[in-house]
């Protein structure tokens, strides 16, 4: 017992010294060359305000409100057969999955953490769902990467489809290593009399009961939702700024011989996408395959955002990283396989190869989602409804097959 405590103490001391030394070296590098650090911070601030903030804020608020009104519990009833059969997770996780696929990280982790706080998900289940729902925002892939960086909208759609399919495939593969959930926080299987009640009525009853348990007025609910969403976005902005500076320091001082997109791809997804789109590759398939793998990896910055939200909900760091590695490998391989048939269907998918910086706008401005904010919100809502409908249809088919 004492030996184990001594080992933990030594490990904690070593990690503290290591992190302290790394922070000191980072500060030293910034002080010695403040101009590159300032430019990196300014670029990251523009990226957060012009892309991340408008793409996430309205949807984070809407998700919080819909969860309080019981939509997550209704979706849990509708998607219970699908989640249990394919992913061995409780049906309420369907809401977390839809949120992650529609709004991107860290919205999926926030939805899982909220359901854990309400007692609807156990710690292990919430952690696995957060890892499963860790997707890149569709607007980032379609608008920023496909249209703004690659200048080929069709490439954005191909990247998004591969990103979604491989993420679900990775979650399905991970389901083989665990048993079907039977915990107290799972959505209870209906008994025989309940099965005679139409599925939609059962879902509506579950949503109404959850809304009654919440009990907050709309004014208080709106205030709580906006506050929590803005706090999440501020946290995400801090991570993006920090890792933008770290990427610049490592690229110029520690890893200057590696490709420019290697360091950014490891740390921050938005900077990596811009770097990959402006780098020269041997062929089109390899460029999109690397970009697809980086989107699946999502960068340590995005991973820490989700992990910080799930710190009280039992998300294992090793499990989360392993899931990202598997997703990244699958995305790379599937893109290589799908490239030839996809390119034969649409020649517009081929990205423009170049070695000069991408044209992100006049005067070097970052691509701005505020200019098309209504369209962005409408597209996200459309994605949300389409994904929910598709998962419901699959769940209904599973129920019919069982009968």
From TrEMBL:
Source organism superkingdom: Bacteria
Record key words, sorted: Membrane, Transmembrane, Transmembrane helix
The keyword Transmembrane helix is assigned to this record: yes
Glycoprotein as UniProt keyword: no
Span of domain Nucleoside transporter/FeoB GTPase Gate: 52-119
Membrane-spanning residues: 12-31, 51-72, 92-109, 156-177, 230-250, 285-304, 325-342, 381-401
Classification via InterPro entries: Gate_dom
Pfam family, one: Gate
Protein name as it appears in the record: Sporulation integral membrane protein YlbJ
Species of provenance: Paenibacillus lactis
């Amino acid at each position: 017992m004492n030996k184990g405590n001594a080992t933990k103490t030594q490990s904690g001391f070593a990690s503290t010294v290591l992190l302290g030394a790394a922070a000191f070296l980072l500060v030293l590098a910034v002080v010695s060359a403040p101009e590159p650090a300032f430019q990196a911070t300014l670029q990251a601030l523009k990226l957060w305000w012009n892309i991340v903030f408008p793409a996430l804020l309205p949807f984070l608020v809407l998700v919080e409100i819909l969860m309080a009104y019981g939509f997550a519990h209704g979706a849990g009833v509708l998607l219970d057969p699908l989640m249990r059969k394919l992913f061995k997770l409780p049906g309420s996780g369907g809401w977390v999955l839809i949120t992650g696929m529609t709004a991107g990280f860290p919205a999926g982790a926030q939805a899982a953490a909220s359901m854990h706080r309400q007692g609807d998900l156990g710690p292990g289940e919430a952690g696995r769902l957060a890892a499963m729902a860790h997707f890149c925002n569709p607007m980032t892939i379609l608008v920023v990467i496909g249209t703004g960086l690659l200048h080929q909208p069709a490439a954005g759609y191909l990247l998004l489809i591969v990103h979604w399919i491989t993420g679900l495939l990775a979650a399905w593969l991970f389901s083989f290593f665990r048993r079907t959930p039977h915990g107290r926080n799972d959505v209870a299987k209906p008994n025989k009399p309940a099965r005679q009640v139409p599925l939609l009525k059962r879902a509506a009853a579950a949503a109404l009961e959850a809304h009654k348990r919440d009990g907050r007025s709309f004014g208080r609910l709106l205030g709580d939702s906006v506050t929590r969403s803005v706090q999440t976005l501020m946290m995400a902005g801090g991570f993006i700024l920090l890792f933008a500076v770290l990427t610049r320091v490592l690229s110029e001082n520690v890893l200057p011989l590696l490709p420019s997109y290697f360091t950014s791809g490891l740390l921050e997804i938005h900077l990596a996408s811009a770097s990959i789109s402006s780098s020269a590759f041997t062929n089109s398939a390899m460029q999109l395959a690397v970009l697809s793998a980086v989107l699946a990896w999502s960068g340590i910055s995005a991973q820490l955002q989700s992990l910080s939200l799930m710190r009280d909900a039992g998300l294992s760091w090793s499990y989360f990283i392993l899931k990202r590695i598997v997703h990244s490998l699958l995305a790379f391989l599937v893109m290589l396989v799908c490239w030839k048939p996809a390119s034969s269907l649409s020649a517009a998918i081929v990205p423009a190869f170049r070695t000069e910086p991408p044209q992100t706008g006049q005067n070097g401005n970052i691509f701005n989602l505020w200019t098309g904010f209504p369209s962005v919100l409408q597209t996200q809502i459309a994605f949300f409804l389409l994904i929910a409908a598709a998962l419901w249809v699959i769940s209904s088919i599973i129920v019919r097959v069982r009968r």
